[in-house]
Amino acid sequence: MRLLRLLRVLKQLKRLDAVQKMVQTISSLVTASRDILTLLGVVVFFFSALSVQLWGGVLLASRPELEGAEYREKHLSVLNFNDFGMAFGTWVVSLLCEYIPALADAVARASSLPGSWLVLVVFYVFGVSIVFELVKAFTIEVFVTLSQSWGKPRKEFRTLESVIEEFERRSLCLHYRIVGDVTTHEKIAQALAEMDEELDEEQEERSRLEHGGQEEEQERSGPGHGHEQGGAAGRAAGG
Length: 239
Prior knowledge:
Blueprint: H1 2-13, H2 17-32, H3 34-55, H4 70-73, H5 84-96, H6 101-110, H7 118-148, H8 158-169, H9 182-238
Domain Ion transport: 1-148
Protein name: Ion transport domain-containing protein
Keywords: Calcium, Ion channel, Ion transport, Membrane, Repeat, Transmembrane, Transmembrane helix, Transport
């Protein structure tokens, strides 16, 4: 019953503008960053699979090679590569925290592969210092772009505006929502608006040229037409 009450609270929170803005921002960030997040996931997946093959079952607190190591003294045995899940979690900790020298020291002590601890350094340089920093920079850029549009009227397609006006004329209301990246929708709307402006300018220029050509034809035909009328009147008088 208490869980059902919690669901009722969540249902009420959905009506708050701040909560709706937060959910929309998070979904837009994830949607816009899916490519760079996919790259980060591939990197972590690769190193997780590699570390299980290299050090699976190596980092155990009971191993005598780890006697006196900082890895055992700080009780870091939860950071190991005994299976894929634990390896994945260890790399995520390295992403979110920092380089862990005690882990590299434990691998160097317990592993039978000399120099294999350098994989940890490679991951920190490539995965953390490059890929993860790109993820953070791209996410911040998208967030700044979204925050600039807060409180401003959303750009819509001209066709959609005409549909909304037609619904309002019939005393109806059109309910819709944007699926996917909101920034992409705004860019498409802006590009289409610019194309509409260019088409309007071309039509105005074409109509202006046509109107100018008609005026020139009228000016050319005016004196000749008057001369013909004068000649016809003279012939009628002479007759």
